Amino acid sequence: MSTEVQTLDISPVGRVEGDLDVRVDIQDGVVVNAWTQAALFRGFEVILRDKDAQAGLVVTPRACGICGASHLTCAAWALDTAWQTEVPRNAILARNLGQIAESLQSISRHHYGLFIVDYTNKNYAKSQFYEEAVRRWAPFTGRNYEIGITISGRPVEIYALFGGQWPHSSYMVPGGVMCAPTLTDVTRAWSILEQFRRSWVEPVWLGSSMERYEQIRSYDDFLAWLDEKPEHANSDLGLFWRMSNDIGLSNYGHGHGRYFSWGYLPHEDKYNKPTIEGRSAAVIMKGGVYDGRTDVHSVMDQAFTREDTIHAWYDEPGGLHPFERTTTPTQRTSTDFSGKYSWSTAVTHADVGRLETGPLARQVIAGGDHGEAWQNFDPLLLDMYRKMGGASVTLRHFARMHEVVRLYREAERILREFRLKDLWYVKPTERDGRGWGATEAIRGALGHWIEVQGGKIKNYQIIAPTTWNIGPRAASGERGPIEEALIGTPVADARDPVEVGHVCRSYDSCLVCTVHAHDSRTGEELARFRTA
Amino acid sequence: MSEGDDPALRKTITDLLASGLETKVEPFPKTEKEFIEIAAELRTLDPKDIKGKLVLSGFMDHPYGPESWRCMECIYYLAHRKWCDLPELAVPVEPDWYCRLWRM
Amino acid sequence: MTNLLWLQGGACSGNTMSFLNAEEPSVCDLVTDFGINVLWHPSLGMELGDNLQKMLRTLVSGKLSLDVFVFEGTVIRAPDGTGEWNRFAGRPMKDWVQELAQVANYTVAIGDCASWGGIPATAPNPTESVGLQFLKRDHGGFLGKNYRSKADLPVINVPGCPAHPDWITQIIVAIATGRGAELSLDDLQRPKTFFSSFTQTGCTRNMHFAYKVSATEFGQRKGCLFYDLGCRGPMTHSPCNRILWNRQSSKTRAGMPCLGCTEPEFPFFDLAPGTVFKTQTLMGIPNALPAGIDRKGYIKLMATAKATAPRWAEDDIFVV
Known about the structure:
- The complex is a heterotrimer of chains A (532), B (104) and C (320).
- Chain B is mainly alpha-helical and 104 residues long.
- Chain B has helices at residues 7-18, 32-44, 50-56; strands spanning 77-78, 83-84.
- Chain B has one domain (7-84).
- In chain B, 36% of the residues are buried.
- Chain C has 10 helices and 13 strands.
- Chain C has helices at residues 14-20, 27-32, 52-61, 93-103, 111-116, 165-176, 192-195, 206-210, 251-254, 295-308, and strands at 2-8, 36-40, 66-72, 75-76, 87-88, 91-92, 104-110, 129-130, 134-135, 138-139, 156-158, 281-282, 285-286.
């Protein structure tokens, strides 16, 4: 067996929030080093400078057409904290409903459109589940592919009822929301939810009722559920789980083992006078930091956020808090893996270092006993994480899909909680100040920092989940989360390194594309393949 | 959101204007920017400070300006209730009155 | 079979997401029922050879026919005209666009960014972004004023931020069923069938527009959004209230002012302070009046409407 290091340049791996390119060093068929590179700059922070204080409500949903509601949520709450608004309970509920609708859409769309299609890759032809996977999940023609893609458009119909359209509405504004829904909007939203459940969640995804699934509280419970009925084992969830284990996806993609979440979905009665400091104790889905190595949960605060630019294409000092940044792109953007090589900054926690964000992070944090007693608690993923020996491609994707039922329930609760004759908006007084808005987009923690001065934007900073996850090395040399997660990834065939794509995509992504691999010594192209 | 008529309030305003209350009828808010500044200032007043509202928004009990603008043509005027629908004002008005927050 | 290639430049993928919401036909229907052969799309796992770059070169060489070239996002030219800030498949994306547009039978710009620059081209346009054949209202754009695709059409602009899925799928179906030549375009190269009527056409707030009752703040149950909240519905060409969004509603129906996102000036006033969600006025009268109406006519219309408005127009209409 050769011990020579082979370098693969994989370009692009990513899209949507920007192209992702990856370089990996492979030794003895295993990735031993990795670099992730964000390859597109659009300069939204630069555009927002000196604009109307509310410009972020129009511009930032358009930073990402996939997570537009999440950006809008952040943009609105950032202004709410800066302007010291009052936000009526109906408006908090309506914002949360929009966030949830977008996430439900993304769960089904990402799973079928972007993630599971890889299971039909000929790389897995030897798996006993392969033929069934192709029947169900082949692009366009697979039975459940079509069901999944079609159903993914339904939840955002609810968004349209309250926000007019998805993507790219701006219906959340400081002081509340623009809409004043009627009873028919609520009843129609119910019907859409119900259809989502009856035509996909239960019959296709779970093969079980949601009520039965909700009884699962531990890894053992889950395994028992899987074996309980053929309908469970043969559901798309069951097949995903069994095939993932069969093709080895539970064995790699570990990462740093440190996680964080901003928490999200402010409680309708607890965040009506929003402040930066008061947010953590007011959200239904709690935030925090979880260190998997020490098995300790702790609280998270936006003040810990730092951005290193030593390996990023910006001419700014490193270690800045977002309020201190200026977003000054460097003009020279040649790739130098020992110097600057990405448009993404390296985001760090001032005390803890690099952190992974995403559904797995949210879920291992949901299992902690920190936070407020009334906040959401769900021990399943933390138990699985502990018993399965940490993170993997399988667990990361399972965490994402697991959220569908909980979010569905929260949407139902919101529809019950609306008081249609109460206020939806309290007109705020515009003023100067600093604000912070955060949420959890489906793929992880999103934050907007705004400084308003003289009625216009002095500084607007966005840190997207992808920034946390695909950032390059930090000043300390510590790898970014995906860079770290790639270490140990087996690559069976350097001409078809599908495993690298799996790891990248398990961070959810938007990382869809064609991957091509070059031999770094000869420049010869080895292979190019789709990652989605 | 407008409220029902309030005969007592209507009389108070009518009397105040008839007594020659000096209001800031000038300058007219040339653009949206000045308009919003006046509206924002109105919001800082005690909602019961009727006199303050009238003064700040430049109320008059007759048409005004070269084109004789009056409430009747203003976007905020609700004719059947004879009511000003601008949330910052929200007061009973008469069709021939005028204030500098007039717009159409 | 109709070969379709979809690429993204300076994009947010919003048009792709909108496209995936399509029904009648759905994205799957396009493939299975209309014979659309999606050669490649950044978010869809399609049948594709192993080699994207090789495929792109085959298209450029003309060995493989490119029937529809769809582009989403701006063409990024920064820094200094090199396009290096948006590299794709081994080179600046703009170089691919240049070559592919020359061999395409139809070139379709999806969304504002590809049509005229959209948000990324907002001042100071840090990425030197431009649309395929326009930069804002200036004809030319990246491909130049004289560009024609092989079917002898200029770039077909399907603007909107995002474009509605039906606007996209109907154009594709028209081409796939051999009716591409019947597409009639306006002077901004938008299909007239979608962009001759106004956003206001079909708006549920039309009666309040007619009787001059304003929605003075958000969250109200009556009123038109034009007078105070900056709605551009009466001046914007789109079928947003004829072909509803997500099969349910529209921004104006839900209480959100139209931002005019199918017009080249979007975002209007370059988002200057004081312009967002506020009707711009001069001496009490809106700067931008409904299409075709002058100031004098507007005043006359207003006075008449106010004088004749029925009592119900003053009450809430979108009641619980």
